[in-house]
Specification:
elongated; 3 helices; mainly alpha; about 90 residues
Length: about 90
């Protein structure tokens, strides 16, 4: 894996983990009992994106390190990934 590939893998991993963690433990304004006029009742009551971003960075770094170790060890290679869903020839089945 090249340096560029590792950076792209980290960016994809970071955003995937971020979007997974974003809705976890969110309290709506309705649940908190403090609805700001002009906002929907389901809007988040607190702004915790910085804390989620830090947690995402920690989790994504661990996940990225595991993915890089798997790729660099050769357990999974590009040849193992079925590109475009092609079936092997009938003689190979």
């Amino acid at each position: 894996m090249s340096v560029t590939g590792a950076i792209v893998l980290y960016a994809v991993t970071w955003f995937m983990v971020f979007f997974i963690l974003l809705p976890i433990r969110v309290q709506s304004q309705d649940e908190a009992g403090d609805v700001v006029p002009g906002t929907p009742r389901g809007a988040p009551s607190g702004f915790v994106v910085r804390r989620k971003a830090v947690l995402t960075t920690v989790v994504a770094t661990v996940v990225w390190a595991v993915l890089c170790a798997i790729i660099w060890s050769g357990v999974i290679s590009l040849r193992d990934i079925d590109v475009m869903g092609r079936m092997p020839p009938a003689s190979a089945r």
